[in-house]
Amino acid sequence: MLSTRHGMLVLVLIAVFAAVPVVSVAADCQADVTAKLFGTKKGRDATEYVWKVDITTRAECAKVQFVLSYTETDNEGNEQAYRLPMSMKVRSGTTSSRKVTRRIDSRHSMSNWRFEVSRCDPCGGV
C-alpha cells in the first residue's frame, strides 16, 4: 500500500512540475562585443591602454554585461590575470560604443587582452 501512495505522490509531483513553465529570460538575448585597441600612452608612473568597444544585440533592448580579461606581467616576469566587469544598455539595430581605459604600472606590461559578453538580459528583465 505504501508503494502505491508513493507512486501516486510521484505522479502528482510530475504533473505539477510539468505544468509550471520554465522561463529563461537570457535565452532570447544575445549580444556581440568587439574591441579595437586605439593605443597606449606610457607615462612616468603608469601606462594607459585605450580601447573602443562596440556592442550589438538582436534584442529590442538589452543590458549587456561584458568583461575585459588580460594578463599583467611585472618587471620580474611574474604574471597576474585580471577580469574587469562592465555593462551597457544596447538597442537593437544599433551599435553602442564605449571607450574603455585601463591604467597599469609603467614597469608592467599587458598581454592576452580580450573582451567577452558575460550576460545579456532584455531591458526590464533580470
Question: Care to describe what's here?
Answer:
This protein is mainly beta and about 130 residues long. The chain has one domain (about 25-120): Immunoglobulin-like, CATH 2.60.40. About 15% of the residues lie in helices and about 60% in strands. It has one helix at about 1-20; strands at about 30-40, 45-55, 60-75, 80-90, 95-105, 110-120. The strands form two sheets. The chain has a three-stranded antiparallel beta sheet with strand order 1-2-5, with no helix packed on it. Strands 4-3-6 form a three-stranded antiparallel beta sheet, with no helix packed on it. Strand 1 and strand 2 form a beta hairpin. The longest helix is centred in the N-terminal third of the chain and has 18 residues, at about 1-20. The radius of gyration is 23 Å and the shape is elongated. The relative contact order is 0.27.
> Which term fits the overall shape?
elongated
Task: Tell me the count of domains.
Answer: 1
Biggest sheet, open or closed, and with what strands and sense?
3 strands, antiparallel
Number of helices: 1
Strand percentage lies at over 45%
CATH class category name: Mainly Beta
Q: What's the average pLDDT?
A: 81
Q: Give the number of DSSP strands.
A: 6
What is the radius of gyration?
23 Å
The termini sit apart by 46 Å
